[in-house]
Amino acid sequence: MLDLIQIRRDLHQIPEIGLEEFKTQLFLLDKIDELTQGKNFVKIKVWKTGVLVFLEGANPKKIIGWRTDIDALPIVEQTDLPFSSLHKGRMHACGHDFHMTIALGLLEKMLETQPQNSLLFLFQPAEENEAGGMLMYEDGAFGSWLPDEFYALHVRPDLKVGDIATNTGTLFAGTCEVKITFKGKGGHAAFPHEANDALVAASYFITQIQTVVSRNVDPIEGAVVTFGAMQAGTTNNVIADQAFLHGTIRTLTMSMNHLTQRRVQSIAEGVAQSFGLEVEIELKQAGYLPVENHPELARELMDYFSEEDEVNLINIPPAMTGEDFGYLLSKVDGAMFWLGVDSPYALHHPMMNPDESALPFAVKQIGKFLHRKVNQV
């Protein structure tokens, strides 16, 4: 039987950025090979750094899919755990080490007997940076294994162990990555009239962009426009010739996302024109659609967990977090849900450390749900 705690800690030590998950893939393949020995109804294939494990049903009427993401974030870990990241500047701060461990535990459980319907376990790379789900779909990685129904979870630190939370509509926002570069003319700080300060223009842009949500977005719908990084200049007495801004747009509908993108672009172009600068704008959205649960399948999942004594089911409103599972749900009916892991630190925080008791809970409860799904006539 798998040691879930040890597996999670081993994975936590080898975090890797999307499409660079080489050690992670080898670790997963080793565990999968160990679990599937002698199981002639199992087929395995890889796609770049991803892994697909297909359990052929004894009397298949459909394919049920379970997806987990496997990549990490460019974050310096600050947990001081004895099993902290061994990869400098990399951390499983979004809980994908938990996701993978749970998927391996579910695989072990589902291998006990051959299922009636077929079951696909997808260990997907590049959720955080390159929309790996979209890349795999567009590259034909699923082939004849494309599920008829797809399910996934995401850990949530502010929910308790035992909590499962979802809804029958939109669970996560659609996102758009924004990169903006203002290009002016550098010069000496003592002679500003001979230069064209890109830093000042970028600062005006940052203040003006706040009006997009307050004055262009329907307050009932909501949106987020955040610029988390700005780089400009080299020292105190040199006027910056360039200023680079890196941000994100998050909305619950694609129509609002497109509106927000247009306003961000218009304001950037207007600021550049008013200061006499050039501006380059890159909007990267592909693959990060809103996570829209299929109403009937999500209701079935919620009804099931509501009957489980150990589960505290929560009907939860949408969150502005992004998830590339939204792309797969735009192609395949399915549902996603939050799993409570009770950490005082949020997702993407350098001290995020989920409660490991959530691992056996998830494998037990989700395993029962999957067993029911794959054995439905």
Poorly predicted regions: none
Mean pLDDT, to the nearest integer, reads 98
Instruction: For the largest sheet, list the strands in their spatial order.
Output: 1-2-4-3-5-16-6-14
The biggest sheet amounts to: 8 strands, mixed
Our count of helices gives 10
Q: Class by helix and strand content?
A: alpha/beta
Q: How do the SSEs run, as a string of H and E? A: HHEEEHEHEEEEHHEEEHEEHEEHEH
Shape type? elongated
Number of strands: 16
Strand content: 25-35%
Task: Determine Rg (CA atoms, Å).
Answer: 23 Å
Could you give the distance between the termini? 29 Å
Helix share of residues? Answer: 25-40%
Short description:
32% of the residues lie in helices and 27% in strands. The protein is of the alpha/beta class.
Set out the fold topology.
Elements: H1 4-12, H2 22-36, E1 42-47, E2 50-55, E3 63-69, H3 96-110, E4 118-124, H4 132-138, E5 149-156, E6 163-166, E7 170-183, E8 187-188, H5 198-208, H6 210-216, E9 223-232, E10 238-239, E11 242-251, H7 254-275, E12 278-284, E13 291-292, H8 295-306, E14 312-315, E15 319-322, H9 325-331, E16 334-340, H10 358-374
Parallel strand pairs: 3-4, 3-5, 5-16, 6-14, 7-15
Antiparallel strand pairs: 1-2, 2-4, 6-16, 7-11, 7-12, 7-13, 8-10, 9-11
Helix pairs in contact: 1-3, 2-3, 3-10, 5-7
